DNA sequence: TATGAATGAGATTTCATTCAT
DNA sequence: AATGAATGAAATCTCATTCAT
């Protein structure tokens, strides 16, 4: 399987670095190839086209979030605690890799609509897991049984996303992870059972 | 003042239509000119360059939101009601002009970073007004006096934005304005005083 | 006659200043109009097109050289003295008006071929007068009767022109007029009778 | 070294032909590419931009003149003979390649000032060699020891250049090389020792 | 005469992708 | 598998000129 070949990851990692450092529109295929230490043409042995590289970047990294979230869901803790861990995990991963944060929050959003729709599909898995937390919370009486799950999901994700983007735009100058408790508190207030 | 010249608005309006219908990257200046019924060169009598058209689109339209929000703030109603009206107004304006909604939620975000930073500056005015609502609510005891205003603002804006974007991506197939009460309820829960 | 109208000269003079200060390719019609204190459209009441302005600039100024040269020819002095006065006059006029010098030696040469051919036609009058000096000198035994007048003319003009251009390119940093005796000496040596 | 790649020369040669036949301002990159039998984009693998092609044309060809002149300087002949051979060589090379003559005498002069200054730098090498001939002539008593070398150089170059330009403007309708003895005679008269 | 807003043709350059080696 | 030279389509912006007032 191509994803296991070393050059596949080499190119993905190169893409993140190049995009973070040069911006989306200044990240030519040839630059990514150079950073990856391969020839331009080699890129096309592992990726269908440029868009495919970018989708794969998102794919691979989102998988990380989702995998971690899956573990969280299965832990024997309250839904509220799961929600907290989700927020904290999200912030922790992006704080630890600012290249990745810049790429996902700023640069990749400059891509064309087709790519963004494709990215949204990848995101969906993540959001489905979030739904699971919400449903669990409702089921065990922690969250408001009358809330609109779809809206709650959009609120949770919108808040996390906006908070992260603001942090990136402010050039990481404060501690994002430290905001987790307050963000969780706001979100929990919004959806907790009376 | 250039903004009063009819061709200025003509071009702004044409830009919104063309971008909504063709997407950001397929909106050549010549297409906008044709839609506006002017020659390509005429665009450059009113705008410095293509980017300037897009900034102006955002400028002009965001002004609408901000103006309406200013009126809301001054009304003799509770902060919670103001928050509701803000959400409702936001949803109403974008529901009424789907071209505009598509452009602001999807297409304009594909612009380069420089433009996006410029857009953020425009947004700031809007967010400052939102802060005013939050501060008023704290002052009169409606909202939690211990909340972090910056985070609350990011939550409110993030939620509204995410909700709108999801609606646009779902091709407007449900009634966005009808979601206002529930969205407001979530947001209010999050920040209300105990 | 249009040439006598004040705006005609106004535009010619504006053109020289604008071209000298901005260079040929940065001398748009609108800039010349502004410098002349007239509307863009007004230019076209006095000149057929942009090229016509430039030809007229050359025409008008070359006339000055030719008029002075005619006077010189008619003076009761030797051909060698006439040659000297011609060189000196050429250098004096251009030293006195550096804008004009820059325009004729550098900027106007960037014009298209058609304009340059037209300019050459204007130059012809000047060169015909030079021929007269040469013929007079041969007739009265001062100059070599076997010389090729056409080549001698090209040498005289080529030398004057090259000397002036070098002086302009060296940013007028030495006294051009002071070179007249030496230049004359070289030219006279070349063509004097044995 | 890029100069050895066949496409580099191919493009240079194509540029000379296209510019000579179409004129400077009608020599689009695409025309040059077509003449060279390469794609437009290929041009940019060998040249930084359009101006770089023109500089290179001049560079390459001027080298020819300079190389030949170096050989002449080293021959065991009189300075006067060297001067003659220089004139003759100049005329011979340009007579043999009328495209090149048209380009150097007419078309390249329409380029912008920046390019012309760059071209002058290339010319300097040629003029330095000319200076060597003049100094040699003075040293061995052939040329007037009191002459101003800079002016003499400007005369020699100005004369050669003007003679060549006139010949090109007259559409090569006489034999340029045949003028060499007379041109040399004039120049030699000008500077020979008493 | 004079104005100046409007016109619209036209060219350089970039860069994702291909394919012969 | 890997290379990298070559391709060629595509779009912004300028500015000489016009013409309705």
UniProtKB/TrEMBL annotation, chains A, B, C, D:
Keyword DNA-binding: yes
InterPro entries per UniProt: Homeodomain-like_sf, HTH-type_Tx_Regulator, HTH_TetR, Tet_transcr_reg_TetR-rel_C_sf, Tscrpt_reg_YsiA_C
PROSITE patterns, sorted: HTH_TETR_2
Domain HTH tetR-type: 5-65
Database matches in SUPFAM superfamilies: Homeodomain-like, Tetracyclin repressor-like, C-terminal domain
GO molecular function (one): DNA binding
Domain of life of the source: Bacteria
Pfam families for this protein: TetR_C_4, TetR_N
DNA-binding interval(s): 28-47
UniProt keywords, alphabetically: DNA-binding
Name by which UniProt lists this protein: TetR family transcriptional regulator
Organism: Chryseomicrobium excrementi
Lineage of the organism: Bacteria, Bacillati, Bacillota, Bacilli, Bacillales
